Amino acid sequence: MKDLTNFANILNAELFIANNNEITSSKESTPASNSNLKEIKKAMPIFSNYPQHLYQALNFSSGYILNVTVSTDTNVYFLFDFTRSTFSESQFRLVSILTKLNPISQTIYRLYTAQVAPTENIYIHNRHDLTSIQRVSPNNPDCASYYELEAEILNAVIYSNQDDLVSALDKLPLIHFFDVLDLEHATLRQKKDFIVSYIAILTHAIDQWGYPIEKAFKIQADLVQEIEHSTQLPDLINTLKGITWFYFKTIQNYRTHNFLPLPDRIMSYINEHVCDNINLDDIAKAVHASKKNLNPAFKEKFGITITQFIRKNKIDRAKEILIVSDAPIPDIAKQLAFSTPSYFIKTFKKVTGLTPKYFRNHFLEDELNQ
């Protein structure tokens, strides 16, 4: 159970376990967790109607729920809420949870049962397919409605209007656009091309609004790189939703950044640049503060030095990559701006007590720490 909870935390998911319809959560009761519990309860009857599928996923306005049936009376749910600010800190985490639903589901099964996970494909539910709305599909996609909705989405993003964004994204699967395009038979390349063009539109919108152009292009480059590396895109519409929420939280965080206390601005910068070679000079310039004031202010609030926080953050990101990808250790070291693979391994072991290879096997090859 501890391993499963750790896995949920690394993926920034909320863990729920239902045993004979009695639900327990990994988090203490809060307004946000209570809202998520309601989403789980709404989804449970839908999942139960498809007992032949061990792995199922269902999207909602601001995220999605992953359901893994681990026994006849027990289900494990991972709820991903894209409105949480931590999703804007990692393009890698976002794209991984959107595109690697099968391996994540299998890992959940292994961690809970300590058994080899079945390799069946995940079954994706779409909210609009579960409603009683009568839909008459034309022969051609309704491009006009799509472009109108796209404008609604862009306005909600750049003006940080969450209610408008929820409303717009809820309409996305209902317009006669994606159904006519026959997504079930679209090639992986076709899906990637659509997502890449969508990312470019969002990037242009936030650049026009006033978000720093170099940061906007870096977001675009990183997201496109992760999409291009993806070997599957099981749910195109939910992938578009997740990317939209990423841009929304990025702009929302940028709006409030200048009003944060110095230690929080330092933390925000480090989170945003965790894959870079971060130094105090860069931080001081970015947060408009004296270099000598950085460490005292940061340590007073968070109890650790900036260097210690950078190291911890990089290792936390390395854990994500190790779990949800098969990237070689040297590639991970390079991606996180470690000088050499050996230094990365040394740092990882110093922080976690484990080598990167052992950590990966521990989660993905059933070498569980009982």
From TrEMBL:
Keyword Transcription: yes
One Pfam family from the record: HTH_18
PROSITE patterns from the UniProt entry: HTH_ARAC_FAMILY_2 (PS01124)
Domain HTH araC/xylS-type: 264-362
Keywords attached to this entry: DNA-binding, Transcription, Transcription regulation
Protein name (record): Helix-turn-helix domain-containing protein
